[in-house]
Structures are given as C-alpha cells and as structure tokens.
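User: Study the shape:
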Amino acid sequence: MSEKKLGERIKKMRYNLNLTQEKLGEKADLHYTYIGQVERGEKIPSFKALQKIADALNIGIEFLVRENENLTVTESIKIKDINELLVNRNERELELIYDFLQDLIDILDYAKIEKND
C-alpha cells in the first residue's frame, strides 16, 4: 500500500469519527503535525505509530493497511472486537467457535436465499 493511500484512509477514518488532527494526535499520543504529514503521505509511520493511530481510531491496523476497502468503520470495529474475544482462547475452543461460525453463516446465507425467493 502506498503512503498516500494509507494517509487517505487514516484521514477518512478520522473524518468519520469527527476528529480533528489535533484530537487524533492527543488520542494517539502523537503530534498533530505528524498526523497531518502521515495523512498527506509525506511520512511513513512506524509500526508503533501506526498501532497508536489505529487504537485512537478504535480499529485494527489491518483495517488501515488492507487493500479491500469494502468494510465500513463500524464493521471494522466489530471485526476487531470479535478478534479480541478470540485472542485468549485455546486451540480446541477456537475450533469449536470456527465450526459454530461456519454453521451460523450457512444459516444466514440460507435465510437470505429463502427471503429472496
């Protein structure tokens, strides 16, 4: 991903949350001029700075750096929350959760087909 595209995504997220560069800088413990430089693609943030920005925006880093832009901020936050629920689970629990989610998705997909018929 280019620096410019990353900066545009950060700016878009900031706007969606009605934050100024100053407020985002405060939340991320970064200077607002640095935020502006990142948003304009003039600076490439370190991983640590990117993590601070993502945390301040209440999203995962993956949302900022992924190529697929189809998710909304709300969807990204939900995915981050789900991910946090899974972090401390053991392998067996993760297998059970995965199987359950697969079944749930199948049910939801089936319900969509039935609804459209």
Remarks:
- The helical segments are 3-16, 21-28, 32-39, 47-56, 61-65, 73-86, 91-116.
